[in-house]
Design a protein that fits this description.
Length: about 575
Amino acid sequence: MADDHYSSAASAPSPAAAAEAAAVVGSSVIPIVNKLQDIFSQLGSSSTIDLPQVAVVGSQSSGKSSVLEALVGRDFLPRGSDICTRRPLVLQLVHQPRRPADAERDEWGEFLHHPGRRFYEFPDIRREIQAETDREAGGNKGVSDRQIRLKIYSPNVLNITLVDLPGITKVPVGDQPTDIEARIRTMILSYIKHKTCIILAVSPANADLANSDALQMARQADPDGSRTIGVITKLDIMDRGTDARNFLLGNVIPLRLGYVGVVNRSQQDINSDVSVKQALAREESFFRTHPAYNGLAKHCGIPQLAKKLNQILVQHIRTILPGLKARISSQLTAIAKEHAFYGDPVESKAGQGAKLLNILAKYCDAFSSMVEGKNEDISTIELSGGARIHYIFQSIFVKSLEGVDPCEDVTDEDIRMAIQNATGPRSALFVPEVPFEVLVRRQISRLLDPSLQCADFIYEELVKMSHRCLCNELQQFPILRRSMDEVIGKFLRDGLKPAQDMIAHIIEMEADYINTSHPSFIGGSKAVEQAQQQVRAARLPATVVRRDGVDADRPQASEKTQKARALLGRTTGVNGVITDQIQAICC
């Protein structure tokens, strides 16, 4: 069936004739897309709209440059044995009606980075491409993803927009990094992955077409082959007895948009100054006379490729144009709302000063309202502002203090050792004050970390409050917003250190003076009184007391024993430690 489709062979028309015959095709939609591409390219990465385009993909020396030059009909691309395309070249071909013979030349090129300047000499276009490439990517084979945008006006071209991408290379040369192949593949994929992109996969016929890098990349981005056009170059230098007929018919790797075979100029032709026009005539003769391709001649050659690209691109644009229009309208509406929110610009210095004072006054009021809980935008999800600060003090800080055990890490052995060290070479009958103060100071210092943590929590909440204040009003002044954040952040940071120092000083003051007169403090007299009460309470249930106060069940203790017991109760009530001397008296 494919053979029948190509059965009516005829000589291919020249590029000029094909251009004149199809000049009206795409004369309205393609220029509109070209203008949008120029605008979006100046926006950089901020644009989120993918425009329809044709991306040219192929390995190094696959013949991409020759195909593009044949489509234009002029020599204008850099040439060389190494990698030549080192930056994406967006090539917009614009059909220009033929001018009278005495009019200004009707073929020229324009670069987006040189607006309004026309390049009538195509060697000058080549030199400008090379210079612009070296400016961005360096002069030693470096590669960059920054685009070069070139428009070529000519009566010999159809309205087509193509993106010539760097060829896939395996071995780095010059200043290229070791992972140059991975980088180029990533760059290519960033273009062809979009559904709006038509993939022009260029593969040389004198290599293994089944393992073509271009077709592999195209299949990765377009698995079903619905937006890929295969271009097979160098058909004239295939091994004798072989041909690419089955590939052109889509019998090996099917593509919905089909294949086109072309014959490029060889390097010897270029060195011999064989013109593109002469090469096209020789290409037409090759397909017409070759036994494997003479039945496919109508669908082979550069003129047919140009016509096919033009028709596919126009149809592709018309298909996605409604969705594209809807996305642009949606973004225009959003931008218009944002623009209206910013309000009218303030031009005069006096007006700018008044505006600044007004914003600062509103900021102060908003911050105070947030602390006092009077702000209009009250959150129902989480605590914020003054409520959050109150929660930090009353819940987090109080719980952290309650979690501090005053007797933790203080054992009876620590107390006994401190008492013995405080008595020196003497034996003491009473508990000295020095070990008590030493141990208490050590426990008081444990209150420092929870207190400093509380200060950090308050600081973090104040910083969050400063970011939330007037966030809507300050959107139109991003530089002022950043400056205010820096100044207020510095002010809060400068206040945090004195607060931490004050907390440390308060803890030190509490540790320097132990207030033993506090009602909650249990001193020596209170300890003895409590100990005596505990002794009496322990004796009452098991003791029968006579009217004269003498225990009837036990023998009377001597006066010495009674004094020892009184001393023992006094000592034990103070610190719960029984010294060796008192134990000896009691024995």
